[in-house]
Design brief:
mainly alpha, Arc Repressor Mutant, subunit A, Tetracycline Repressor, domain 2, 2 domains, 9 helices, 73% helix
């Protein structure tokens, strides 16, 4: 799945030993993204941490940018799989709009928090790397579509005049609030304000109230 989306500058190995070396490169780059951020680490550090030669890295990736972009694909593949699994579980567990909203808040919030150490530097890098930005937007759109579908399954209970607009607004508010709390993007000083459990509870209540309130 990942290989089909890799840029032409990435040469994915097919043989066992080469694949093991390639995996160590990606694992090392992930660890360095977490500990040093998207800009500070070097390919020399990837070489040392992953126990691979610089030559082997350049054999697979034409640049550090290509390596980071490949790491992002791996990370978002895990994020999307986890997110969609949790959204499906919420749909199966909830029999009403009032029940599903807090479950969806929990699914989005905890999936993003679980992967925050890697998502944070990738989202910061997206401000100047168009490939990272585009890939991130595709992941965001996937989550938005899943949450939107889950909410619209209870369309009959939504009292807003335009249910599609209402659920779109709910997702944007939900994602923005969670992203701000987790320190995604550039507003680092806003991260970790307040209690995490209170934020989730209040988001669930506010979004449910909005959806079930008649339009003015």
């Amino acid at each position: 799945m990942e290989e089909a989306h890799l840029a032409p500058s990435v040469r994915v190995p097919r043989q066992g030993r080469s694949k093991a070396s390639y995996e160590r490169m990606l694992v090392a780059a992930e660890e360095l993204l977490v500990t040093k951020g998207g800009e500070a680490f070097t390919l020399s550090e990837v070489s040392r941490l992953g126990q691979v030669s610089i030559g082997s890295i350049y054999c697979r990736f034409e640049s550090k940018d290509a390596l980071v972009q490949s790491v992002q694909l791996r990370v978002l593949d895990r994020v999307d799989t986890r997110m969609l699994t949790q959204v499906v579980a919420a749909r199966e567990a909830a029999g009403s709009l009032l029940a599903i909203v807090p479950l969806l808040v929990e699914a989005v919030a905890e999936t993003l928090r679980e992967h925050a150490p890697l998502l944070r530097p990738l989202m910061q890098r997206a401000t100047h790397d168009p490939i990272v930005a585009q890939t991130g937007k595709a992941s965001y759109a996937s989550t938005a579509a899943a949450v939107r579908s889950a909410l619209l399954a209870h369309r009959a209970e939504i009292r807003q005049d335009d249910p599609e607009r209402a659920v779109d607004s709910c997702f944007r508010v939900l994602y923005a609030a969670i992203a701000r709390y987790l320190g995604f993007g550039s507003a680092k000083e806003a991260a970790w304000e307040g209690r995490w459990d209170v934020l989730k509870q209040d988001l669930g209540r506010m979004l449910a109230a909005f959806l079930m309130m008649p339009s003015a």
